[in-house]
Amino acid sequence: MDLSKGKQLIEGPLKLVGLGIESIVEGAKAAGANVVEVTFQPPAGGDATRMRALAKLFEPPLAEKIDAANQIALERLLESRPTLVGVGVAREVIPGMSDDLILHAGPPITWERMAGPLRGAIIGGLIYEGKATTPEEAEALAASGKIRFDPCHHHHAVGPMAGVVTASMPVWIVEDMAGANAGNRTYCTLNEGLGKVLRFGAYNDEVVTRLKFIERTLGPVLGRTMAGRGPIDLKMIMAQALQMGDEGHNRNRAGTSLLFRELAPAMVRFGGEAEDVAKCLDFISKNDHFILNLTMPMAKCMLMATEGIAHATVLSVMARNGTDFGIQVASMPGRWFTGPAQLIRGLYFPGFTDEHANPDIGDSAITETAGFGAFCMAAAPAIVQFVGGTVNDALKNSRQMGRITVGKNSLFQIPALGFEGSPTGIDVRLVEEKNQLPVINTGIAHKAAGVGQVGAGLVSPPWECFHQALTAIVEQENA
Amino acid sequence: MDLSKGKQLIEGPLKLVGLGIESIVEGAKAAGANVVEVTFQPPAGGDATRMRALAKLFEPPLAEKIDAANQIALERLLESRPTLVGVGVAREVIPGMSDDLILHAGPPITWERMAGPLRGAIIGGLIYEGKATTPEEAEALAASGKIRFDPCHHHHAVGPMAGVVTASMPVWIVEDMAGANAGNRTYCTLNEGLGKVLRFGAYNDEVVTRLKFIERTLGPVLGRTMAGRGPIDLKMIMAQALQMGDEGHNRNRAGTSLLFRELAPAMVRFGGEAEDVAKCLDFISKNDHFILNLTMPMAKCMLMATEGIAHATVLSVMARNGTDFGIQVASMPGRWFTGPAQLIRGLYFPGFTDEHANPDIGDSAITETAGFGAFCMAAAPAIVQFVGGTVNDALKNSRQMGRITVGKNSLFQIPALGFEGSPTGIDVRLVEEKNQLPVINTGIAHKAAGVGQVGAGLVSPPWECFHQALTAIVEQENA
Questions:
Q1: Predicted structure pTM score
Q2: Residue B177 falls inside a structural domain
Q3: Domain match, A69 and A87 both
């Protein structure tokens, strides 16, 4: 274990170093000693049970077994090749999807415990599907038990913010084209843009009209386009976008532009009527975040390749439903470790404050789980103007994430760090040892249903997720 | 004057500091003294005449007059709004263009003194125009005196590398939409892409066939597109591209992508036949440098706004024809100060070395003259992989250019330098005072006609240009 966290550069004459034991420090100060106080953080926050558990996981031979498993997980993640292969309709292509099922972001949750923006998106989804005509009807239906709710992740799907997927929505189909998990498929809806949108919990006519455009025009045009042009390698676009100021979560201007360049000629050739194609080109061109709904299933696809590797302690999922934050560990696929979703530290749109903010929501933390997003903030200095902070904060952030990850993704390079690979593979053990939570950058939704986005910022999972995961790992290993 | 250039951090015990006067230093060393040698560079390279000239230009009241004029020049440059307004045919839209005239990059030059790549491009241009059927015929015609040659800059045009413009070529039309110089128009051909291309001196069938596609399909499609959609603000695209890893000279992937997003929907609506539009979309999408031929006339348009400001000592032009490097000063529009084009320090494509390289060529140094290109290399870390060097070199480069420029462009921000504005307005006085030439990044053409690009790197103008300009400024001011 690395106990060096307490070290810091100390200049000048030194009489005594205080490590936080107040009675001693105060006594020494009172006696006139020159005391330099440094923050000493023992591993696992100093909790005796967790420190013992951690020690076991870092001791041979178990440590070697876990290290080897984590390296296999990293290799699988790196060798996966998530490829955009087409567009389908949710009910036809997502495994287990049906007309009475609504998918949502984060770990499982009942209607009663759902946060405002998730409820808002479900209300909008039911109106969009024609199952309700008013928000009141939709709420009554949602509470009636006639509609089932499931996490996107239980269906190989991911969704930004509320992450609501209903049966009629068109979805991207991403397929792993390489490695041990070739053939894995993941899914995500098409990005709606900013403003009043379903994923932030808005459900007015504007929202539903746009969803109908996506269903009737954008989805079919892109479906024909992909069928005509053939697959698109998403990792190559992401690699380029990281050289162009994106981090693939909240900064997506470059990736969207590169995807647009790939799609546009084929949209003209295969997409259908010229005016429909022009409308779709306009719609994509005006939405810098269009590719987010592809970086997410790309990340999910990369991480699916790590699922089921015995002994691996790296995360395969981080996801939030607006009430709970849930993580999954690669060696225990499908098992959630949850804690309360946190409030986001960030910048608010004019007229809004943290009083209006819903806690953390969305499957988009899958980007950080796969080693980009906030983990690559050093590649996206412009994002600090969006989430707050300075360019140096962004650099520091990427370096800190290097302390809790098991390797680097040499394809996803960060120019400002001398083209170093992105820190990849969050190890539950390292998070506990370094007392360093993963950092996520994210939009902030209004806490009431029907409003929408109010800001953006940085957030971390609650410690509970990692403490539970640590306990489960120790139990699993009989350590 | 700042005489601090000789300073450097000196550690350890110090007996004597040697400033380069060898006899003293060597004598002291021989006597056993501990000598630290530092490079002392007096202003103007220590030339007595130029030092006196410089001193006059930095003394009140002349200094105030020049400073004020340079600030006006900077303001005019910053307030200009170069806007893409359309596409026309060179003979119809470029002032003074005619069928027996060929425009080229750099200062004026005769056929006899032209370098290989410029000759190659002229051969290609004559074949393309149907004035010759073989390279030999074209050379004979070029040497006959029946064809006139003029710098692009004499016609408000700019051209990358050889910069050849013939009468039938489609050209972008850029118009200044704001400031004292609203209505100024500049021109540039449409970028051909990489590989065997006219601008690098190639002239085979592939080159001519592509030029015909540009004339018959791309130009008309883009002309109809621009007429249908209306103008595009080029500075806004450049500002965004600098946040996305471009510097607007040799790294243009982001700007090309953003321009593509602006153009594509309108190309579908107004461009004409779907298959023609699809071909044009493909052509643009596959050429990361497509926007170079718009960043150049944008820069030219910004700098035209500075021309004719009495007393201004900032540059309005830097341009090379492959034999000579020429600069112009804002207060003396149209007057060239020239010296020999330099060899480029850079990286070569496999199979080529500096033996194959032609000296510096092209009007593209107009980008550096306007404060971007190599002046913004810190914004484009990926470019160091193309021209050689490290990310730190790129940062250093942008900082050094700040020493010879009169201000910052707050719209063109460099993220890696804390969003500092790009160093803008190269002052002849500062170049001489700091002994610091402007840095330019550039492609390297093969020195023989007909070959093409062999590498890319960094280069500077020859000192002669600045020495002549300094003399002319002093004469003009009767100083």
A1: 0.90
A2: yes
A3: no
